[in-house]
């Protein structure tokens, strides 16, 4: 009988404690975080707006660290992020599956650096990874799809990946190599070096000392070229829609495809208007 009840009330995400067994407040949270109605969309945009302000704070952190109120803002951001993580955990239908998501681990690392800013000051550059986790939300891309601009989703994702990498490497270079007489004396110098290295321009006016500096430059060039190629592919390759073939699971097809080019199965790809 218990097995029957679990199967009866299990929801679509495989949580044996389905909606009938979860508190109403958890169901409301889930509707707000995962729903697509007007109220949920407004809530998600409000959360995303706060996230964007937080990302801006992370980008400017190296410049603001000497500000007297920096720690207060730091702990306020930590509180907001902890509240968001707790709410998302409560809204999750399967806490184990939710906890294994890379986005959750990224947010936990960011939260740890915020809670111990003096002890983990050298890891502060990892906070910008929050920009990547923010890009994993479907909210932004859903808005593009509704307006008929699906082709820009891959471009946007590739651009954000490149931008995140740029700021992570800049923060690492600034934390590890910046100092008086090093040639990299400020955050702008670190950003300049990172852009010149990622684009393989290589002016040579700023170089990183020692073996560690050479290895950092090598990794920066390899990762940067890879992300630039990915962005170029997203910009210039023929546009295809994402629609999984029911038979062979091929994901990308031409917008006007009638049959799957891999297995010939009849497709029913929705048009831009959702029809």
Description:
InterPro entries: K_chnl_dom, K_chnl_Slo-like, K_chnl_volt-dep_EAG/ELK/ERG. This protein has helices at 2-9, 24-34, 38-64, 70-91, 95-99, 102-115, 129-135, 138-146, 152-177, 187-198, 210-236, and strands at residues 241-242, 252-253. Strands 1-2 form a two-stranded antiparallel sheet. It folds into two domains: 1-148, no CATH class; 151-239, Helix Hairpins, CATH 1.10.287. Helix 4 runs antiparallel to helix 6 (102-115), helix 6 (102-115) runs antiparallel to helix 7 and helix 7 (129-135) packs antiparallel against helix 9. With 275 residues, the protein is an all-alpha fold. It is built from eleven helices and two strands, in the order H-H-H-H-H-H-H-H-H-H-H-E-E.
Q: In short, what is this structure?
A:
Helices cover 61% and strands 1% of the residues. It has helices at residues 2-9, 24-34, 38-64, 70-91, 95-99, 102-115, 129-135, 138-146, 152-177, 187-198, 210-236, and strands at 241-242, 252-253.
Radius of gyration: 23 Å
Backbone shape = flat
Domain count: the total is 2
The total of helices stands at 11
Q: Mean of the pLDDT scores?
A: 75
Write the layout of secondary structure elements.
Blueprint: H1 2-9, H2 24-34, H3 38-64, H4 70-91, H5 95-99, H6 102-115, H7 129-135, H8 138-146, H9 152-177, H10 187-198, H11 210-236, E1 241-242, E2 252-253
Antiparallel strand pairs: 1-2
Helix pairs in contact: 2-3, 2-4, 4-6, 6-7, 7-9, 9-10, 9-11
């Amino acid at each position: 009988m218990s097995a029957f009840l679990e199967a009866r009330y299990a929801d679509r995400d495989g949580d044996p404690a389905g909606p009938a067994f979860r508190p109403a407040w958890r169901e409301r949270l889930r509707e707000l975080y995962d729903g697509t109605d007007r109220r949920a969309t407004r809530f998600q945009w409000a959360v995303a707006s706060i996230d964007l302000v937080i990302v801006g704070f992370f980008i400017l952190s190296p410049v603001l660290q000497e500000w007297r109120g920096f720690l207060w803002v730091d702990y306020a951001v930590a509180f907001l992020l902890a509240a968001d993580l707790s709410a998302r955990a409560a809204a999750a239908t399967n806490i184990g599956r939710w906890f294994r998501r890379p986005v959750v681990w990224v947010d936990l690392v960011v939260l740890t650096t915020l809670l111990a800013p003096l002890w983990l000051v050298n890891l502060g550059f990892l906070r910008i990874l929050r920009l990547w986790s923010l890009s994993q939300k479907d909210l932004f891309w859903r808005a593009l799809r509704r307006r008929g601009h699906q082709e820009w989703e891959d471009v946007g994702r590739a651009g954000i990946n490149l931008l995140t990498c740029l700021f992570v490497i800049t923060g690492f270079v600034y934390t590890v190599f910046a100092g008086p007489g090093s040639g990299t004396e400020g955050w702008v110098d670190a950003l300049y070096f990172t852009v010149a290295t990622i684009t393989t321009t290589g002016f040579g006016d700023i170089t990183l000392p020692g073996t560690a500096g050479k290895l950092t430059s090598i990794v920066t060039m390899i990762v940067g070229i890879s992300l630039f190629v990915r962005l170029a592919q997203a910009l210039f390759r023929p546009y295809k829609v994402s629609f999984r073939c029911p038979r062979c699971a091929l994901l990308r097809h031409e917008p006007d495809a009638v049959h799957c080019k891999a297995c010939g199965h009849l497709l029913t790809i929705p048009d831009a208007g959702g029809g």
